[in-house]
Specification:
Strand order of the largest sheet: 1-2-5
Number of domains: 1
Distance between the termini: 17 Å
Shape: globular
Helix content: 40-55%
Radius of gyration: 14 Å
Number of strands: 5
Structural class: alpha+beta
Order of helices and strands: HEEEEEHHH
């Protein structure tokens, strides 16, 4: 078993057009291999298949298992991307739920 298989992490060979699945920022560098996640949203069933992409900042927090730090970073970045039009507490609640799915699905946490 190699280090990538052991930790469920792989380097990324995707185009720079991809976004971080944690903060929606540019240039994800790491792919976390996870179990497929099915969620049911209003009138739609969504499936995240097998991987989450992370930028360098989010990946550093994941390696440290800093769940709260990751939520804070992602929430602040998303609020800025939304032009500060949505309350940080609303964004953080959504981020917490989404990231919770990642932590549950990530086999090596």
């Amino acid at each position: 078993m190699n280090i990538q298989e052991l930790f469920g992490v792989q380097g990324l060979d995707r185009s720079k057009a991809s976004a971080c699945d944690f903060c929606a920022g540019p240039n994800p560098l790491v792919r976390y291999l996870v179990q497929d996640i099915k969620t049911v949203e209003i009138e739609a069933e969504l499936t995240s298949v097998g991987e989450w992409l992370a930028c360098a900042s989010c990946a550093a927090l994941i390696v440290q298992s800093d769940i709260e730090g990751l939520i804070e970073l992602a929430s602040e970045r998303l609020q800025k991307q939304l032009g500060n039009k949505v309350a940080l507490s609303v964004i953080a609640a959504t981020v917490r739920q989404s990231h919770g799915r990642f932590w549950q699905a990530w086999k090596h946490h």
